[in-house]
């Protein structure tokens, strides 16, 4: 009876850190982070490369191959991360900014309904878009100025 040993799989562009977490060699990106981007957005390896130009296609394919060979472990990690994020979201409570934006959106919706009755909805939408462009230009010009005060 002969015993055959299965070859050990190696992934040229994947390394394990001291905790055993797989990351893409030469980067700080974890394999699970790349996989989560692919799952969330449905990106192909080429699109992942476009979104993360510092990664080569070889690194991306190697990381994805590692994922498909270790799906149980990495899917458990993705689930754990999702639970942690949800718990943190619940502990943080409602965001004051999100509440303000919701109120502003509701105000705009109310204005649109009122203007739709008078046929001016398109005008209001165009005006808001122009106001947003003006605000963006104002902020950009402020960013281009040197900082105030002593240097």
Question: How is this structure best summarized?
Answer:
The protein has 151 residues and is mainly alpha-helical.
CATH architecture of the largest domain: Orthogonal Bundle
Number of helices: 6
Whole-number tally of structural domains: 2
| N-end to C-end Cα span | 80 Å
Biggest sheet strand line-up: 1-2
CATH homologous superfamily placement of the largest domain? Winged helix-like DNA-binding domain superfamily/Winged helix DNA-binding domain
Annotation, overall tally of beta strands: 2
Q: Any idea what the radius of gyration is?
A: 25 Å
Q: How would the global form be characterised?
A: elongated
Question: How confident is the prediction overall: mean pLDDT?
Answer: 83
The major pleated sheet works out as: 2 strands, antiparallel
- Report the portion of residues in β strands: under 5%
CATH class of the largest domain: Mainly Alpha
Low-confidence stretches: none
Secondary-structure element string: EEHHHHHH
